[in-house]
Specification:
Blueprint lengths: L4 H9 L6 H12 L5 H14 L3 H13 L14 E5 L8 H10 L4 E5 L9 H5 L11 H11 L1 E5 L6 H11 L7 H15 L3 E8 L8 H17 L3 E8 L6
Parallel strand pairs: 1-4, 2-3, 4-5
Helix pairs in contact: 1-3, 2-4, 4-9, 9-10
């Protein structure tokens, strides 16, 4: 059956479930420029307002992963472990945590993001350091991981390129807070990244995207399920961000 963006938007606008075929098509078509930004914006808003079920989120995430490459850290002598914080005002835990975990014997492939909404991302903060470079090739990343045990850099263009486009779109269309889109964005990158274990720090409170414990718990549960389904040992913690970190 032929697909088109308007029928996909209407399905979710009218509180319907997107089929696997619809999800696969719209992610692939958007990645290749066949679905316009304004159409994907409308779909993102429909998802924000009407949600997605577990099957839809899982398929959406798988389609995001399939849009690009998957990294392989099997050549490293250390086990890989990573963390992701959902972020908020003043969140800078990556900087002390990555070297601390590396000192304990793990390799930490910390692919960080830029700011969403009113917050600055890890990469935005690190780029204030003269000479620091966010973009590394896969070979450079593996070399740093092998020699130092930790790397903080941007995800390469080949890693979940669908998410890279949608991430920027959400930031300017008021759809940052959509739980299905947050979960699939984070987990598509982390699964494609190839880490063996993942700790999720889900912020909750006035300084975070998730304002209530209920929303934070829903996001955490969704992401743990996605990671587990893809063979990544995943745990989540809910941490308070009612008072921004110093």
């Amino acid at each position: 059956m032929a697909m088109d963006a308007i029928s996909v938007i209407r399905t979710k606008r009218d509180r319907g479930e997107l089929s696997d075929a619809q999800i696969d098509w719209v992610i692939d078509a958007y990645t290749h420029g066949e679905v316009a930004d304004e159409q994907m914006s409308a779909l993102a808003m429909a998802i924000l307002l009407n949600g997605m079920n577990r099957r839809e989120i899982a398929r959406w995430t798988a389609a995001m992963i399939a849009s690009g490459e998957r990294m392989d850290f099997s050549s490293l002598s250390r086990p890989t472990a990573d963390k992701h914080s959902t972020g908020g005002v003043g969140d800078k835990i990556t900087l002390p945590l990555a070297p601390l975990v590396a000192a304990c014997g793990a390799a930490v492939p910390q692919l960080s993001g830029r700011g969403l909404g009113h917050t600055g991302g890890t990469l935005d903060k690190l780029e204030s350091v003269p000479g620091w470079r966010a973009l590394l090739s896969n070979e450079e990343m593996l070399h740093v991981l092998d020699t130092t045990g930790a790397v903080i850099c941007a995800a390469g263009d080949g890693l979940a390129p669908a998410d890279k486009k949608l991430y920027a779109l959400r930031d300017v269309t008021g759809t940052v807070e959509a739980i299905p889109l947050i979960a699939s964005s984070i987990m598509s990158k982390k699964i494609a990244e190839g880490t063996g274990s993942l700790v999720l720090d889900v912020k909750v409170g006035t300084g975070a995207f998730m304002k209530t414990v209920e929303d934070a718990r829903e996001l955490a549960s969704t992401m743990v399920g996605l990671g587990t389904d893809h063979g990544v040992r995943t745990v989540a913690l809910l941490t308070d961000m009612s008072t921004p970190s110093a």
